[in-house]
Amino acid sequence: MTQITPQDATTLTRQDRRTLALSSLGGALEFYDFVIYVFFAKIIAEQFFPSSLSPFWAMLNTYAIFAAGYFFRPLGGVVMAHFGDLLGRKRLFTLSILLMALPTLAIGLLPNFAHIGYAAPLLLLLMRILQGIAIGGEIPAAWTFVSEHVPPQRVGFANGLLTAGLSLGILLGALMSLWIAMQFTELEVKAWAWRIAFIVGGVFGLVALYLRRYLKETPVFQAMQAKQQLAKSLPVLQVLAQHKTAVGIGMLLTWFLTACVVVIILATPNLLANFGIARADAFKMQSMAIVMQMLGCVIAGLCADRFGATKTLLLGAIFVALSSLLFYLNLGQVSQSTLFILYMLLGLSSGTVGMVAYGLVKMFPAPIRFSGISFSYNLSYAIAGGLTLPIVQWLSLYSPIGGMYYILLVCVVAMITAWLYRQKFEKTS
Question: Which domains does the chain have, with CATH numbers?
Answer without folding.
Answer: 14-230 (1.20.1250.20), 232-424 (1.20.1250.20)
